[in-house]
Structures
1.
Amino acid sequence: MLVVTKFGGSSLSCATQFEKVKNIVLSDPKRKIVVCSALGKRDKEDTKITDLLYILHAHLKFSVPYQDIWDMIYNRFLGVQADLNISYDIKKDLDLLKAELNKTISQDYLVSRGEYLTSKLMAAYIGYDFVDAKDLLRFNYDGKLDSELTEKNVKLAFSKSQKIVVPGFYGAYPNNSIRLLSRGGSDVTGSLLAKCLNASVYENWTDVSGILAADPRIVKNPHAIKEITYAELRELSYMGASVLHEETVFPVQELNIPINLRNTNEPDNPGTMIRNECTDESHIVTGIAGKKDFISFNIYKDHMSNQVGILRNALEVFAKYNISVEHIPSGIDSFSVVVSSANVDKIKYEVVTDLKRELDADVTIEADLALIAIVGRNMAKRSGICARIFQALGNEGINVKLLTQGSSELNIIIGVSASDYEKTLVALYESVVR
Ligand code: ADP
Ligand code: ASP
Ligand code: MG
């Protein structure tokens, strides 16, 4: 039996957190594979090492003096090493890195040093072997993971040592240059390793005692979800529950390896179990999550309902601009195409012009739209959820601009004005989630 155990930056911010991690790992011999992010924030005002490295890269690129920012990075690593008296000579590696700094240094390489150095520290501290992620996660030049080679590498590394620490967040191209994953990607590294080794559990240790039923930065003290399916989590994380990277579920889902989200600061709390099927029926709605910054293109045309192919023509316009479409709520003679503002902001008027020309229809834009997903596997069996949603939002004077339900009845998406976003989350939590 083996458990892959990933610790996020919040669990690795200082010597005290390192001590907690050591206790957790060594308290269960099944915790053989440890994945580390880079040193995270010690408090709200602090800056993550990853962010400092991105800033350092920008300084180098634009030839701005960078000594101060380098010192911050250097001192944080050295501080942890000194506080815990770790035998690894991190100063030597930091000095080597300093000598490599120049205007053209690869951003991926430089930023990956956050997880690399943190993992080397952790390996020495807990007495595990360090294995570099660049020798495990291998990508093709098109950026796609070479799954077969990765699995072969991971199995080989594990056959050589059964106690290893691997840095998260990066791998390498065929020429050995570093490729970073997207932000928060150490979650995905852990999930890939768990899959390659067919782990019994993938533990993801962070700073909250489970996936919370709503964003704790907006809703006060939301409850933790005991059990959630991969599909529900995917919906929540895609829609903004930033606790796990949205790609985390895919590798482990194939083998039905449960993900157990746990709190490093409260190790006795069982956290949240994420798996294919769940039996807990205590809540109809599992959780809510949302994002601001969507735009809706609203398309109206008389007798549209009789016009074959109009939807296809509209979608072709979005495809032409390479804009991915989030939702298409429709009426009889109208439909809307909802997309993320980031993908369309600079070209929205061109899109409107093209839509008008291709469809011979009226087109308006509704900007500053927020979308909120109400997610729950148990909703399929119950009626009356929408009534409760409308009642709660009506009581708060919130205007619902859009409502769609996925065909699996796993989620209901509502759109409100971005300025109503926080108010909507709180009202929904109180009325349908709690
Ligand atoms: P780590 O450093 O361990 O990778 P992250 O900062 O990436 O941690 O993710 C944990 C944070 O996600 C929490 O501190 C919390 O503020 C935030 N978060 C947002 N939505 C949720 C949610 N639904 N449940 C739990 N945490 C959430
Ligand atoms: N350190 C990286 C980030 O801040 C990766 C991670 O934490 O998963 O995005
Ligand atoms: Mg994270």
2.
Amino acid sequence: MGRANKVVLAYSGGVDTSVCIPYLKQEWGVEDVITFAADLGQGDELEPIRQKALDAGASQSLVGDLIQPFIEDFAFPAIRANALYEGRYPLSTALARPLIARRLVEVAREVGADAVAHGCTGKGNDQVRFDVAIAALAPDLKVLTPAREWGMSREETIAYGERCGIPAPVSKKSPYSIDLNLLGRSIEAGPLEDPMVAPPEEVFAITSPMSETPDAAEDVEIVFDAGNPVAINGQNLDPVAMIREANRLAGSHGIGRLDMIENRVVGIKSREIYETPGLLLLIQAHQELESLTLAADVLRSKRQLEMQWADLVYQGLWFGPLKDALDGFMDRTQQHVNGVVRLRLHKGNATVIGRGSIRSSLYVPEMASYGSEDTFDHRAAEGFIYIWGLPTRLWAASQRTSS
Ligand code: ARG
């Protein structure tokens, strides 16, 4: 009689997803709730979370280490695409969702589930990302979304949980809603709902407050190969280590905090605080290297397509046709993005102070120079400008005669 027999629930260990377990069983007649918790480098202890799901009534509690695919297959493409939603947010939360959805579907297949479930509410972006991704990957799987339908307030949810033996959140309850992974943290709700209220220092965890940043500037050199960051300060790093090191370096100088009003998919504006030090540093460096290595028209087209790439990832369309097509463009351009960028980190700012590329630079010193090595034909400019300016001269003349 239930909505499904066997359900794989995306599990974070928080109150909402914990309450989903007894709710699915008691209210919707699900027999087996199998939870899946993803390790995305958020630094939480996974074993207590695994146990918590069992305590809440899960028949199986699974955890999966997704850190490497998260960085290699989701974060690095975002760096290559310089993906910044609305010009600012580097999609640290959004990028994780299609990966979790993909793994959720795989687990559902492995255990023979007839549905998957998540604990997203009805006004966020994450529900969109999960639902669309699951529908694309497994159209036959039902998606159960208790938190979108139960209509309980936060207090009622906690009370429901307590009746089912799920302890209320311990310690002094944080008023914030926080999502975190190796790419960074997003913080919303509580006092932040007033857009005029400055974010209190307590919301930050991986970027230093300005008062604790070093007084001395620190220079870093980041090497890219085919658009991927591969070394920092002469040290070759695999993708996961690269993100960790970039987080450490930028974070220690207080770089990577954002405070913005963001347009959600469901049409509402929300106030978001982010700290994504490494990702922002790497994107800044990557953009700079592209300015040296990509032709002007490719660069201009790419900047427009980057916006579309960021939009569609934000909007949950990772597995859609535009993403696939844009990736073709991005990958082709990245063959040329090889070289090094030097940045100076100091007091919340990363400033590019140098860029170079032996293999792929389009900067030609004999063309650019005003010195004796200059080989540019200055006289050729006259004919070019005569024709270039022709429409302007004709139009200006017509304005004079018609007035
Ligand atoms: N607004 C961001 C996004 O849509 C982050 C939302 C994450 N959730 C949270 N509870 N802070 O990608």
